[in-house]
What does this fold into?
Amino acid sequence: SGAGSRKRKSRWSEEEPRSFQLPDFMKDFTADLDPEVQALNIRLLEISRLLQSGLPLDDRPEGARSPSPEPIYDNMGIRINTREYRAREYLNKERQEIISQLIKKNPAFRPPADYRPPKLQK
Amino acid sequence: QQQVALQQLMLQPGTLPTKVVCLTQVVSADELRDDEEYEDILEDMRGEGGKYGNLVNVVIPRPGPNGDLNPGVGKVFLEYADSDGSLKAKMGLNGRKFGGNQVAAVYYPEDKFAQGDYSC
It folds into this structure.
């Protein structure tokens, strides 16, 4: 706009046609601009942090919790499906799902080392 | 404190979209000392930056009169009316060359920009 009247040439290089192949880390970058992907990434980070934090994952007070499922005990008589254990399971499940979605949206996304693709069940 | 740590991470410069795009390593202190060159650069930035959206402000920190370098010298800040403009500018300008310098475009924290803090 109005560039014709200018005596001086702009220092900006011409906008290059971006036909060249973006390196993988750039693909990550551009896909990350998608707000949906951003939200997923943020949630993934949040979950990963929670899981690694060692903080109580379900600290809702007694009354605010939904009824617990039937207890499952191991052969030592120690309950397996504690609240903490279940909360961790839920987070892990959500984490795996988020990673699956991120992969779907961005094939260049590198999943964390402990990610296992969901088993195809028939 | 997890929440705080998380927030701090998200507030790290360049992480989250803002309306301010920072072009790093674009100009040299010498170029900026010269009033005419400075005006030219400003004009180039307004011209090119305006192609991507509603550009409301261009800030190019200049070196002090005694030759002391402000932390923002070398950078150019483009403020847009909305993050749509800043996104397009960031995508469009990143990797381009300005006077032979390869430009990197990142988001800049709006609060710092508003405070005139160009250090990060």
